[in-house]
Fold:
Amino acid sequence: MFRIKTINNIARSGLDRFPDDRYSVSDGEDNPHAIILRSANLHELQPGEALEAIGRAGAGTNNVPVSRMSEAGIPVFNAPGANANAVKELVLTGMLLAARNVSDALGFVSTLGGVEDPAKAMEAEKKRFVGYELEGKTLGVIGLGAIGVKVANAARALGMTVIGFDPHMTVEGAWQLSSDVAKAGSLNELFAASDFISFHVPLNDATRGLFGSDALAVAKQGVVLLNFARDGIVDHAALAEGLADGRIGRYVTDFPPTKLLDNPRVIAMPHLGASTREAEENCARMVVDQIRDFLENGNIRHSVNFPDTRMAREGSTRLCIANRNRPNMIGQLSQVLGAAGINIHQMHNASRGDLAYTLIDTDSDVDADALAALRGIDGVLRLRVV
Structure:
């Protein structure tokens, strides 16, 4: 019986995909085989002996100690693309809020409750909230993953010119991207051409402060920044400077800096990007399926620290080995099995940076001595038999 610990509110439609006869699922599981969470902070987590996997029902994994889990040979799964439509729709909402001064207009109307003739007051003051249309404006999209591609395609459908930048774009993403989205040769090219800029990249050393003072110097006057990715991608000092002198017309964000909450140019939301019933259900279903396939078959798909590795089950026993990516690891694994008289029926190995993952199906059972010898190989982080 696999024990699954849930943290946060995980959609029932996802958890119901765990068969009752093979899984025990609750928020009170002790020493679980897997943890599924949304936004809880796991950085103080001390994994129990049984822990084999962590599943984040969402895209970002900043709240999970990924590097520490990697050292323990524990894959961290996420659900890329499962909330892409929800975020896309909120980005479009943000552009419309900014372009049509909707927040300011709603705030004005909310003050008219005690006015003698509200309709007259609204008619007299509506010119204060004159905006502009999205059609014909240019949107720059930084990061053309699952969300960025959807945002770019939707903006094209609205009649916007779209420029994209992503030096690491996947073949799958390229297939899905509208053919008339222009590709920027550099970030500065995108900054200089865009009326709106939407960020869809993870927060890491390369993207922290991605839009800073240098970007502000080349950006269009009155540019609208849309940050539904992560706080820290837009440098706070450059943001405050640009908002103060009008070089940034609006900052629409799911992660508002505390000091700018009362800034009239900031449209702040309380991290609503993936907050739809559909997105929560999609994320839960996706991560549950990944956890199940890993626990039952050893297959890895959509892990943020280990490579995608899948192989159809054949043979008698399956070994699932997380190891460091070093020369002769496969040779050492094969040598131990060969010395024990165990034939390898099939094998699949893949690497990702400093880590690798190997699936081995054997034609016979693997005894305790052979398992101990495999675990004793320098560089083997974790071995499971499924």
